[in-house]
Amino acid sequence: MDYALLLVQTLNGVQLGLLLFLVASGLTLVFGILDFVNLAHGALYMLGAFICAWLTLALGNFLIAMVIAVPVTAGAGYLIERTVARPLYARDHLDQVLATFGLILVIDTMVHLVFGPEGIAVPLPAWLNGQLDFGANVILPTYRLLIIGFGILTAFGLFWMVTYTKIGMLIRAGASNRTMVSALGIDIQTLFAFVFALGAALAGLAGMLISPITEASIGMGNNIIITAFVVIIVGGIGSMKGAFIGAMLIGLIDTLGRSFLDTIFALFMSPAAAETSAPAISAMLIYIIMAAVLAVRPQGLFPPKAR
Amino acid sequence: MNKTLTALLAATVLAGPAFAEGAKIGFVTTLTTGAAVIGNDTKNAVDLAIAHLGGMAGDTPLEVIFADDGFSPETGKQVTDKLVKQDDVDFVAGYLWSNVLLASRKSVVDADKFLISANAGPSQIAGVLCHENFFSTSWQNNQTPMAMGEVLNQLGVNSLYIMAPNYAAGKDMVAGVESTFDGEVLGTDLTKWGADAQLDFSAELAKARASGAEGLFIFYPGAASGAFFRQYDQLGMKDDLPVYSVFSVDALSLPRFQDAGFNAVMGSQFTQAWDPTLDNPANAKFVADYIETYGSYPSFYAAQAYDSINLIASAVAAVGGDMDDKDGLRAALEAADYESVRGDYTYGNNHFPIQNFYLREVVEDEEGRWTTKVVSTVFENHQDSFASQCKLP
């Protein structure tokens, strides 16, 4: 067993898990509290990436661009909440799915028109573009460690906000019983708008963080939105803790599956068969996990209380 | 009921004026998603070819209808069906992606139309699925990586790690390099491909590094190559694991690499059947006019698309515009009697070109733009290895 490789792959999995958490946390908030299915959450992820990429080229600094791009993406989320989402809260999920699917096409095409089809490569400052050598063949790109740091900070920030602040209390209350919260005189519309914008900012942040690795590209949100839905279904819809644990689980399973499945398969089948079946199975792995969770605990691993 | 209706519609269309309206070409390429960069380049080349021909093949006007495959086999087949049934085109050309071509092939050949691939060359269509009405103006997938395998032998590389997307062409590329490479292949990773392709290669790159291989062979066309080289660079792998690629560095990615100051790609080598510096009049005219019209070097995708239109035009002119003369058209296509930008070539029995493969290197031109030049000829008049499986004479 190659422990250095195992460690590197585990960290890669943690990094993917934290990115997934950023996307899934916003999705679970909007789905759990607003009871709104937002397929266009991935489009906000892409929008964040493109805004940040464009600002990086304009301002010449990735970190400054990110500081500006997060509130801009939140603003875009707020606009979408006011114009598209709000009229649809009372409608059933199918209408919401249709409207937000349309929104994906609109945002994809808008980005195509404004930024062109080729996507934007985001340059990193030199100190972030290198790698750290921990010895014993453990070499990691500095930037991926930064993503891990950002992800953990954001997770703690969200945890603190949801657990210890008044707005967090309202969010939890809203997730448990929306009608009661509004009956108690809370301005539910403002709360909803805030939650939606927060979700957009989180998705946008994830898009910004990934863009120096994969480039900002059209349709990048479609890659991650399906996985994010898997995460919140596994974790329990509406639960922040569920989103975190689900995201880590899916991130690790996906990365470790891609890394070691062919080696494991080669133990009991021919190398050629292992080589062709492993990528197919590892692509399915997270859906197999989801199916297993749904079979045993249909409400997810950590459903919010009193739903 | 539906069938009768379709038959009736088809009959009405077929009963229209025979060849007064000229030759119709459907061109299937990718005009949306990130891969639209490639699609736009082929569209530009087709437009340029039509402009060079003055819109005419001999005395017959040419009409091109573009269709977008959306980077997916399902959509590709749908638009092909539309071109064949509704637009009643005479030729369906284009096809960047092997999986799209494989899905669309039957629709075209069953309708007795000509299918001209301007890029994809899946092994199946070169072998068991070959068809008298199929022609390629590119190559069979395995050939270019076979040439790369030969180059690796010459360089004395003893072991290789392979990364490619998990679809028809990716598998052909892997098989191609494995068939000629004499050293040991220490591992192969096939990654998810399509509109939701995997672009984060952290796990695969870590495995490649841990494998201790002397070289890393990759095939990542389009946007994925940018993501790949970024992550390869961020991991600092340039010194311990050099990359040998096919179809991953091209005239579309080079300006972007240059803008991003990605110097690691300068001097890198890869194999191909065409290069902008190939010395023949057709190529000189094509490259110069392409740069003048669109402001950048044409990619190999553009070169092959340009060839596909000229091949079609040569056949249409040979039969004097009589599009019902299928045998005449086929014979004219088989002759490949046109000025190809890769120089003259002949067709094998499976209608894939028998042609040279060159080693290309990334260099800077006089104006400081990054482009490529030919280093050496790896294969001369090379025929793909699937031709023997094709039953055509």
The total strand number of chain B stands at: 14
Q: In the CATH hierarchy, what is the class of the largest domain in chain B? A: Alpha Beta
Query: In the CATH scheme, what's the topology name of the largest domain in chain B?
Result: Rossmann fold
The dominant shape of chain B is globular
Strand content of chain B: 15-25%
Mean pLDDT of chain A: 89
Major sheet details of chain A: 2 strands, antiparallel
Query: What is Rg of chain B?
Result: 21 Å
**Element order, helices and strands of chain A?**
HHHHEEHHHHHHH
Instruction: Indicate the radius of gyration of chain A in whole angstroms.
Output: 20 Å
Note the total helix count of chain B: 13
Arithmetic mean of pLDDT of chain B = 90
CATH superfamily of the largest domain in chain B: Response regulator
Question: Which pair of chains forms the biggest interface, and how many residues does each contribute?
Answer: A-B, 47 and 40 residues
User: What's the helical proportion of residues of chain A?
Assistant: over 70%
Give the amount of beta strand of chain A, in percent.
under 5%
